[in-house]
Amino acid sequence: MANPIRILSSHLINQIAAGEMVERPASVLKELIENSLDAGCTRITIDVEQGGVKRLRVRDDGCGIAPDELALALAPHATSKLARLADLDAVATLGFRGEALPSIASVSRLTLASRMRAAERDVGWEVAVGVDGQLVAPRPVAHPIGTSVDVRDLFFNTPARRKFLRTEKTELNHINQVFRRIALARPAIALQLTHNGRIVHDLVSAEGDRIMARLDSLLGQDFSGRSLAIDETALDLRLHGWVMRPAFSRSQADQQFFYVNARMVRDKLVSHAIRQAFSDVLHHARHPAYVLFLDIPARLVDVNVHPAKHEVRFRESRQVHDFIFRALHRRLAVGAELAGQPQLLPETLRDEPSLGARPGPARIPHRSGVRDDHGVYQADLAFQQPAEVLARAPEPAPPMREPGEIPPLGFALGQLNGVYLLAQASDGLILVDIHAAHERIGYERLKHAWHDGQVLSQPLLVPLRVHVSPNEAELLAEHQEHLARLGLRIDRIDAGSLVVREVPAMLRHADIERLARDVLADLAEHGGSARVEEAINGVLATMACHGAVRANRRLTLDEMNALLRDMEKTERIDQCNHGRPTWIKLTHAELDRLFSRGR
Ligand code: ADP
Ligand code: MG
Fold first, then answer.
1. Overall pTM > 0.70
2. Which of 35, 108, 115, 121 gets mutated to test ligand 1 (max ligand atoms within 8 A of its CB)?
3. pLDDT tens, residue by residue, 21-37
């Protein structure tokens, strides 16, 4: 029994459109703020009651709306931002679909009031929308220059939608998130947010150095101190902003702000590029934090993909992906502290050998010798044996240093608890997590060796049989060749067992069975869908971990100094493969503070 076909009323059309665009109070806020920004405002005031469900009002000092256009602004598909199809190819405004105001008005009690900038109009005008969607005739009101949109009782007429709203606190969180996105992208705009009459944020217009203060107030006090600034340009692409140093990664993906031409987006391609840039310095269960802006010619990006415009489409997606990846990867490789030049050895230190400092680095061997009388060291310090990988894999030349100059990580004083290395640098005390640092050094060297096809392998005198699951045996068959290139020759015997025949020479003293198992577990995790490169990096990291110095191994001062020098030459040394810091510095000032000196 078919119903007759009819054309929907515009009120109903708006309500349907609202389904796509207005999910919750925060989505209303996003649309209203974007309109204010498009109107060229310098200040936005947002007042929210009961998580925005009861009331959400946005006021700006932008260009305003002409009295005779107020009603039009609330009509569907009415916009001042787009006239021709061609304009879509280079949209410079945040809005352009003319859908937001009518959609919001169809699911709330909305009042729109505005006064234009032009001096002769000294009075504002207001229109309200009735319950049936009909406009109440415009009337003059007292209003400063700019526009106010007052949205009350969201979803009062769409109970199904209302049911999806969460607690006041949750809705406020979403509002806060939208507020942060805009506030981070537009530091020059003064922004105030109140909730139930209390001020939540009050941000003044910020420029230059003051921008960091705004970042801190939105992302936590230490963001500026813990982040790396980035600004890279290639052809007509520019990536700038800040990434949190990997050591301060987060357990949630709650501080990831990415903007394409100042529009906040969540884009799979972008996330993948960022994730990949961090993959080397971050444990996969941790999340990077960043505020990044991609500037790209408008013709190379399509923003008309999603009603709320959360997504974009890049015309040259591969190029954009690689650009973001490379820019970040390079920035993360340099790290924060070691990028600086070595400092001069202060007078006091030069004359005090008792502190453990070695005046003149010439006395410190470039690499430590390996002590045969302690079998364990041999395996542990395998990464430092020139005969194997190192002689073949060229390294960056050590930085030139004047005699008497103190290197960035200083000179070793001793070892603490078998775990930490203490060193004296020119401006404070350095603490190194020996295992973590060694792991990173080994990982980077393995990567170099792997890329150059120069991992040396060594046959086992007695091949080692390892029992595995059929799934693991299958994985092995798939990756056998790559593992062979890593110096790990493993054959499958049957569905449930493997035999290890050769291992990388540098790992000949490691626990081979555990190594094989870990490598397979690694392939199981990264393998499958991930690209070979990522899987291999996982395997290299596992191998590096097996080769690195375990806790409670005693190192000589020479070995410690060699480790410090190796650290200074290693990319991404600031954090281990899992993103934990490998070293920290207590500056003289911090030490003085700890002892309340100099107050
Ligand atoms: P869009 O932003 O896609 O054009 P909207 O429904 O959000 O569609 O707004 C419709 C029109 O109303 C806008 O094109 C603009 O001309 C006007 N408008 C809305 N909000 C403001 C504001 N805060 N200041 C000035 N004009 C506004
Ligand atoms: Mg809009």
1. no
2. 35
3. 888 999 999 999 999 99
